[in-house]
């Protein structure tokens, strides 16, 4: 997002993914606007590599897509009998053993899991279409800021498949079971306005203000001390799985660690 990140040169630039780092902010950019940033196994491997290459200085990761669309989803060539050259097609996957199929999908999912690491806050900047795998990639992030032309859709079920790139858990957590079911089964578009009103997105802005809104949010996220942000994220991330009493205990433990650290008594 910041021009200085580009001046430093990319840490990674391959298979439709570019990673740049500017001190505490990393930017992951999908770089195939001609195909509306359609996703493939090669792109997923590059996203996984980007996560592994993040320096320890990084606290905020911004995810964005070049062009008019954030990501139009799966490269439809994967659904054809010939598939993508050098990759397993869906037909090949269907013919593989259960363990091999499970391992392959698990490998694909790795591209979508590291965005919620406790030591990072990730922000998806979404414009235009975020469909299927594109929707799930936006859901992989902690926060979402959208342009007013953003349209989300989960089209897997309409194709006879299911969303399997880690998007179902955050979607239900954000909008609830009933709305998540309706969104997935109908495959309909969710507009920017609905995304904000249902909690799917944090903020909607005019398209020409998307970059500046993300920069402002990144700066605000960096204002608080890193360790306090990590502890707070862990508290909130585990809240749904804890009872009220368990959450009280977790709050006390986390606060005890922070007070000891601030007093110079940390372990």
What does this structure look like?
With 267 residues, the protein is α/β, with parallel strands linked by helices. It contains 11 helices and 10 strands. The chain has helices at 3-7, 41-52, 90-95, 98-113, 133-140, 168-175, 177-186, 192-198, 210-223, 226-237, 244-262; strands at 12-14, 17-22, 25-30, 60-65, 121-126, 129-131, 143-147, 151-153, 190-191, 203-205. Strands 1-2-3-4-5-7-10 form a 7-stranded mixed sheet, sandwiched between helices. Strands 6-8-9 form a 3-stranded mixed sheet. β1 (12-14) and β2 form a beta hairpin. The longest helix is centred in the last third of the chain and has 19 residues, at 244-262. The model is unreliable at 1-7 (pLDDT under 50).
Physical arrangement of strands within the biggest beta sheet:
1-2-3-4-5-7-10
Query: Main sheet, how many strands, which sense, barrel?
Result: 7 strands, mixed
- Secondary structure: number of strands: 10
Briefly note the structural class of the backbone: alpha/beta
Could you list the spans in which at least 5 consecutive residues all have pLDDT below 50?
A: 1-7
| Backbone shape | globular
Strand content: 15-25%
CA-based gyration radius: 19 Å
Order of helices and strands: HEEEHEHHEEHEEHHEHEHHH
Average pLDDT number: 94
Helix content: 40-55%
Instruction: Give the termini distance in whole angstroms.
Output: 37 Å
Number of helices: 11
